[in-house]
Amino acid sequence: MAASQLQDTDEAVLVLDNVSKGFSGVQALDAVTLRARAGEVLALMGENGAGKSTLLKIMSAAHAADSGRIVLDGNEVSFASPVDARRNGIRVVAQEPEIMGNLSVAENVYVGALPRNGRLVDRARLFEMARSDIERAGFSGLLDPRAYGRDLSPAQRQIVEILRALVGKPRVIAFDEPTSSLSDHEAEALFHLIGRLCEDGIAVIYVSHRMKEIFRVATRVLVLRDGRVVGERPADETDDSELVRMMVGRDLSTLFHHTSHEPGRPILSLRNLTSADVHDVSFDVHAGEVVVLAGLVGAGRTELARAIIGDLPVTGGTILVDGEEMKPTSPRDAIRAGLCLAPEERKTQALLMKRSVKDNISLAIVGQLSRWHVIRRRQEREVAARHARRLSVRTPNLDNEVSKLSGGNQQKVVLARWLARRSKLLILDEPTRGVDVGAKADIYAIIDQLAAEGAAVLVISSELPEVLGLADRIVVMQRGRVSGELGRDEASEENILGLSILEEEAA
Amino acid sequence: MTTQTNESADARPKEGRARRVLNAIGVQNISLVIALILLVAFIGSQNSNFFYTSNLATIGTTVAIVGILAVVQTVVMLIGGLDISVGSQAGLTSVTSAMIFMATGSATAGIVGALVVGAAAGLFNGIVIIYGRVNAVIATLATFAAYRGLANVISNGRAQGYTGTDAVFVFLARGNVFGIPVLIWILILVAVAIQLMLHYTDIGRNIYAVGGNAVAARLAGIALNRYVLGVYVLVGVVAALAGILLTARTGSGQPTSGSQGLELQSITAAALGGCSLQGGRGTIVGTVLAVILLGVLQNGLIILNVNSFYQDIAQGALLVIAVVIQQKRAGGGGVGLPT
């Protein structure tokens, strides 16, 4: 295969040839070669930290490579800035896009290239252009061109970012985990769009952790591990387990542990719980049970979790914890009652990025660890070390700044915090979002183990294999309401998806 | 001066003892120490009177009042706020302490009264910030003006009373303990107490947490409001202490003179000492070093006979330099407006 790769260098639109990049002693990329061909979808896979993001950043000229060449249409180029790369038709769709809150969707899409009428912005044409873009890209009904950036959901923000990449004449478009904030329905629209981009002769690069999508859209798959290319395969000549093996050297079937638990007393009971975005929700979570909240992004699952934890006001219904009614006015009350929430956005909502692993683990228990407000430091270190070990947090030491850890290890630090607090009920909102395969398996194992030890776990997940792999019971939400409850044995991807979307389409 | 705490913290266990000590002090603090040494060497070489014990004691007593305010300003900045009204609070409490003293003849009553007024002024700042949901800069800018006005109203804009014959006030202003002026002892006590609180208690840990990531702190069960209120009350109390010392030093309650500019000086010292304006970062040691550096600079300019107007320029320049260095350390991109 290596021989043929050398020959077709000049057919490719964009070639990153033998690119290397190091950051303060860590070799992020080591002689990586990537070819993007017109009309093809190249999937880029690898665990977090494998070098995918760095590769995209070199492509978009956000970073300069230490060595290696960038070849565009057969000519070696070097881009002075991200703007320069854009001008040459190279677009990277960021996973967490920058959206200007006080500008409309249309302005966000066309920023820097607004249509003018003399010296003034032609607003009518701007909105019309945005409207037709949304329609042509297949996102009709999902996005209003006049909506303000600040009001957009994560999925809508992602769509704006995708639309931006289509403005002008893109030659190469790289998508960085585009579906992590999209529901299945929106993802489907994106896959159609990618198909059309290929027909138009655009080279697509697609970064994702999700196998199903890879096989759905990709022509070829390039796998990175530790900054090196492990292998490149045509998509129809490989399968999940080979790719996972290439990424981690681990078999897919080992990803999920599930021991069947005997559910005990109900720890959390919701009765007709109602808040701004949640209507009439009732269900129980028992001790020793993993309940997964499934549904589309925007179905009100995060809002429900925040209402339970006292972070959003409850307007009706009751929350019972261990049979006693709880009326939390702040997360503090809920935590005292034995509840906790590991939110979706670790970096902005859960972690003190500039503090140590130890400080982050002990955050919710420093009060308990203190006598007359003086922290018993040895005990603190002991507790932090024990939980870091239990969750196999990979860090050189407990004083390491948490921002230096990978996404998976950061998530483990958040879990360690709540294990240390001995919470009765853990609410985990998308616990494996942006987490690499190895750390995912660890997190699944811990969730299973927690339930086995008698904790109640409520997981919010949008990944169907994860829902099925983890759950003892599945509660599906749609538009702020519970649309169905499924036992582990009766659940399938089809009926979960059905409960998530079917009624919505009828309405 | 710009970086490296980060990288070196990583490999800590493998490094030598010297390196560990260096890390414990912190790169920013080492730069401050070096700057201080250079400054002292320069001033000393130009005028050897600088090294007289009496001159060093002068520096110490001048920085004491700014110093205690800079120490609490550090705490406010750690929690993600800012208090522009510290100088006005000091002026208000200076007047209060002198007026109560004159009315009752008791220094204790004057001191206690001033502390109560300071706590109330701080509490008011906290309430406006938390329950009025007003940005800390705006809230304390408003009270900066209001507390100064209040001080002028109750004193008719004039110095109040005479405390120069009272043993307690005289002791505070000119007393010595073990050969070191009381003013310097007070700075040391305040700095050590705050440092112990920040470093060894759950209160300190939670202050860093609230300033570092308020959402995470709230979801971890920390009562944000309580901490923010508490910090502003603490500032009020310490500002009152500064006001009392001001009264003691000048012999009378001063509504504005002596307290004007303390807000700028305390913020400059905290920023120069490594406090992040975004909260969550900063140390008392850094702030105290910066206070000493500023004091030496001010003293140097005086004994070198530099026009006193240049002192303001020097101080403004230092604040800008301190914050520029910090932004570099924070590593933010050079794009867009600073946050």
Automatic annotation (TrEMBL), chain B:
<dbReference type="InterPro" id="IPR001851">
    <property type="entry name" value="ABC_transp_permease"/>
</dbReference>
<feature type="transmembrane region" description="Helical">
    <location>
        <begin position="21"/>
        <end position="44"/>
    </location>
</feature>
<keyword id="KW-0472">Membrane</keyword>
<keyword id="KW-1003">Cell membrane</keyword>
<feature type="transmembrane region" description="Helical">
    <location>
        <begin position="100"/>
        <end position="124"/>
    </location>
</feature>
<feature type="transmembrane region" description="Helical">
    <location>
        <begin position="284"/>
        <end position="303"/>
    </location>
</feature>
<dbReference type="GO" id="GO:0022857">
    <property type="term" value="F:transmembrane transporter activity"/>
</dbReference>
<keyword id="KW-0812">Transmembrane</keyword>
<feature type="transmembrane region" description="Helical">
    <location>
        <begin position="171"/>
        <end position="198"/>
    </location>
</feature>
<protein>
    <submittedName>
        <fullName>ABC transporter permease</fullName>
    </submittedName>
</protein>
<feature type="transmembrane region" description="Helical">
    <location>
        <begin position="56"/>
        <end position="79"/>
    </location>
</feature>
<dbReference type="Pfam" id="PF02653">
    <property type="entry name" value="BPD_transp_2"/>
</dbReference>
<keyword id="KW-1133">Transmembrane helix</keyword>
<feature type="transmembrane region" description="Helical">
    <location>
        <begin position="227"/>
        <end position="248"/>
    </location>
</feature>
<dbReference type="GO" id="GO:0005886">
    <property type="term" value="C:plasma membrane"/>
</dbReference>
